[in-house]
Amino acid sequence: MKPEQSVYNKLHKFSAKEEPMKVELSIIDDLINEYKQTAARAVPAKRQITQAADELKFVANQLSKISEKLVDVKKQADELGANDASSKASSVSEAAKSLASSWSKAAEQAESAAKRI
Questions:
Q1: What does 23-77 look like in DSSP terms, one character per residue?
Q2: How buried is 4 (Cβ within 10 angstroms: 0-12 exposed, 13-18 middle, 19+ buried)?
Q3: Segment 18-52, tens digit of pLDDT
């Protein structure tokens, strides 16, 4: 028998008698647990985003109502000849209308983001 063959036979006999080595990779389990914990944090975050979107919708709706009321107040002030009050009502009405539009768009974007989570 060739010397190489003898070495291979001995190695085979030796390795056949050995039990398979167990490699413990607890780091995988640790990272899986960390992944689950981190991913679970998205659920409350999504809820917060949805609540914020609802609050922004409410604010936008209220601002729209205020703007409409101020338009009526402006008309009444015009009828009475109260130019200063009319000017203030018009200015605040436009600001409320602009903010209502901005907050409404922000609410839609937040709601869309929450749906993607």
A1: ---HHHHHHHHHHHHHHHTHHHHHHHHHHHHHHHHHHHHHHHHHHHHHHHHHHHH
A2: exposed
A3: 555 555 678 888 899 999 999 999 889 999 999 99
Q: What is the chain's Cα-based Rg? A: 36
Structure tokens at 78: 């015009």
Task: 37-46: list long-range contacts, CB under 8 Å, 24+ apart.
Answer: 42/117, 45/117, 46/114, 46/117
Q: Token pair for residue 112?
A: 């869309």
Q: Which residue has the tokens 């917060």?
A: 48
Residues making up the chain, counted from first to last = 117
Residue 69 scores a pLDDT above 90: yes
Instruction: Kindly state the tokens that stand for 27.
Output: 């780091």
Chain-centre distance for alpha carbon 56: 15
Nearest to 53 by CA among 101, 97, 105, 116: 105
Q: Are 77 and 86 in contact (CB under 8 A)?
A: yes
Q: Residue 60 corresponds to which amino acid?
A: A
